[in-house]
Amino acid sequence: MERVTIDVVSDVVCPWCYLGKARLELAIAEVQDEVGVDVNWRPYQLDPDATSEGSDYRTHLVAKFGSAERLDQMQDNLRDQGQEIGINYRFEDIKVRANTLDAHRLLHWARIEGQDIQDRVATALFKAHFEEGLNVADHQVLLAIAERCGLDPALIGNLLATDADKDTVLSEIDAAQKMGVNGVPFLIFDGQHAVSGAQTPDVLANALRDIARMKAEARKGMI
Fold first, then answer.
1. Could you tell me the CA-to-CA distances from 61 to 10, 58, 71, 74 in Å, in that order?
2. Which end of the chain, C or N, has fewer beta carbons within 10 A?
3. Per-residue pLDDT tens digits for 6-20
């Protein structure tokens, strides 16, 4: 069985990224008997100017999208699409425009422990923000997620209290931007094939099959 690595460039306060994660999981489940898939979560900040304490979420988004009506239409659309695959968006409960740098540091440390742990942390961060209305810049929220996902909360607390790996995360974001990533989610398959946006499970499953087939054919050609 061929294996495909997917680097998912995303931000934990991006609703399309949460939708994209759920759809990717469905695609991976669909091809699990055909293709092995390894997923790495890579950082991006849609709103790097947000403060650690956060400001009002809805006020910021109304200004960003131009009107309350346009924002409501987008969020209603996301609610509908999310409900189809088990996501319960509760935009009305999100109060804080959170800075996500520390959340990305937590994801970075989780990846060191293993892809499964990083994936659990990614899911927990999305769920905390979009379904529980929690502030993902709050260190207590991050510590609770870390502990629930199998990380050492004392170690994570000590790291969060410092600037550990901030430069690493920011350099990854900078590298993604220099690659041309200006919106997320952005999926990179085996470091060379890119898919942008929260694509449907069938599109992602077909992409995985195609790449696995190309790898198998290339391997045969080398024999």
1. 18, 5, 7, 11
2. C
3. 999 999 999 999 999
